[in-house]
């Protein structure tokens, strides 16, 4: 029963953290532009995050080390600092995009002022992060994120051509530079570094031990797999609703409207609630991730359960990141545009993020019998190679397509 409960909570947490503004933007944009032809990129990205999340959780359970503990130990000081700076910059701009998305969703509910509700959204998320316990944050934003399942139901209800959907899971030769850009964006959105920072640090916060290895494996496979199912649902709905109408879903409001087509105002409301909780949960994840990384790099006490007195620097960093994120939102920058840059450029930090995990999980002296087996080792190195290719391709495609503009 303990395992079943823990896995259920892990699934809920994965929904809140996996389907963030990056997944919303790229999955819906890909469906609206290329129909089902990019569905194959979703399982490619999902399998990658499952592989590395499982490794990072296993290292946390066996060795008690989160991701940036490994960066600190296994890189030279200059490389570790470079990794820290890259992770903080990318986490910060992702946080700003998530907070901007929360503000947009609130304004859609009340239609008063985007800037006013950007501030309200930041206050709601900041208070929730400060007042709620770590488990409560997972439950509140995770349960709320379950509303995104409306897109999976909508995908079935819209009666798509299932043979074409099946063909979409088979990669085709790239039809254009824009096609390649979306393929890279979809994979990168699934592999966002903050997911690993948060997952590994959360495992340490919850005091995982060797007995939790089964829970970790099931969390990674079932939790992120369910997040991938939501991503597929989003792309199918966009292909059914936006592509035939020639609509470019440039705003989160357009994304939410897709659920109104099959289910009316009820579908719209459920979709907006799901997006709100998913973005709010992702904002907390990214904020905590930045603070985790800084604290682990400089050996500060860190974590929600440590309290403000014992982990003052960590809590101050969390507050500073929220305030800084609002500062970016207050400039009026488009969160969707900011997201595209944050997601695609996040691949620059991926090799520096994932190599220490791969190295530590394969270290028999550190891991003992829990060391990587043949499957984990093979998949880990294959995905690390893919990550290195994406690191080179993503910035080129970003410039070549004008951030997806053509």
**How large is the count of helical segments?**
20
Quickly give the CATH architecture: Up-down Bundle
Give the CATH topology.
Amino acid/polyamine transporter I
Radius of gyration: 20 Å
User: What count of structural domains?
Assistant: 1
Strand content: under 5%
In whole angstroms, the N-to-C terminal distance is: 52 Å
Number of strands: 0
Could you give me the name of the CATH homologous superfamily? Amino acid/polyamine transporter I
Order of helices and strands: HHHHHHHHHHHHHHHHHHHH
Global mean pLDDT: 86
CATH structural class: Mainly Alpha
Broad structural category: mainly alpha
How would you briefly describe this protein structure?
By secondary structure, the protein is mostly helical.
Summarize the structure in words:
The chain is mainly α and 406 residues long. The protein has a single domain (2-400), classed as Amino acid/polyamine transporter I, CATH 1.20.1740.10. The chain contains 20 helices and no strands. The chain has helices at residues 2-18, 21-34, 41-63, 67-74, 77-110, 114-131, 134-145, 149-157, 162-168, 177-190, 193-205, 213-245, 252-257, 260-297, 307-310, 312-329, 335-345, 350-361, 364-367, 374-400.
């Amino acid at each position: 029963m303990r395992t079943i409960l823990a896995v259920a909570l892990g699934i809920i947490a994965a929904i809140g953290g996996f389907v963030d503004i990056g997944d919303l933007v790229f999955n819906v944009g890909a469906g609206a532009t290329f129909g089902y032809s990019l569905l194959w990129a979703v399982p490619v990205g999902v399998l990658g995050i499952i592989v590395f999340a499982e490794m990072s959780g296993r290292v946390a359970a066996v060795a008690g080390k989160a991701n940036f503990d490994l960066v600190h130990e296994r890189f030279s000081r200059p490389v570790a600092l470079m990794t820290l700076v890259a992770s903080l910059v990318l986490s910060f701009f992702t946080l700003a995009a998530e907070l901007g998305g929360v503000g947009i969703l609130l304004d859609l509910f009340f239609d008063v002022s985007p800037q006013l509700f950007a501030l309200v959204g930041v206050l709601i998320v900041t208070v929730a992060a400060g007042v709620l316990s770590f488990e409560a944050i997972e439950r509140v934003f995770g349960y709320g994120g379950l509303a995104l399942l409306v897109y999976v139901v909508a995908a079935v209800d819209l009666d798509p051509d299932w043979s074409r959907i099946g063909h979409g899971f088979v990669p085709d030769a790239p039809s254009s530079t824009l096609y390649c850009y979306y393929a890279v964006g979809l994979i990168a959105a699934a592999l966002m570094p903050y997911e690993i920072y948060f997952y590994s640090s959360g495992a340490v916060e919850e005091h995982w031990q060797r007995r939790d290895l089964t829970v970790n494996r099931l969390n990674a496979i079932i939790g992120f797999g369910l997040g991938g199912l939501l991503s597929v649902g989003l792309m199918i709905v966009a292909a059914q609703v936006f592509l035939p109408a020639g609509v470019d879903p440039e705003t989160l409001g357009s994304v939410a409207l897709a659920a109104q087509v099959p289910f009316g105002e009820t579908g719209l409301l459920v979709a907006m609630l799901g997006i709100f909780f998913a973005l709010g949960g992702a904002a907390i994840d990214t904020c905590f991730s930045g603070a985790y990384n800084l604290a682990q790099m400089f050996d500060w006490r860190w974590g929600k359960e440590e309290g403000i007195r014992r982990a003052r620097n960590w809590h101050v960093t969390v507050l500073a990141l929220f305030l800084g994120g609002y500062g970016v939102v207050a400039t009026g920058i488009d969160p969707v545009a900011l997201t595209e840059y944050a997601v695609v450029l996040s691949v620059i930090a991926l090799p520096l993020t994932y190599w220490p995990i791969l190295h530590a999980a394969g270290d028999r002296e550190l891991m003992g019998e829990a060391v990587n087996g043949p499957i984990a080792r093979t998949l880990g190195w294959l995905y690390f190679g893919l990550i290195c290719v994406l690191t080179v391709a993503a910035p080129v495609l970003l410039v070549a397509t004008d951030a997806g503009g053509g």
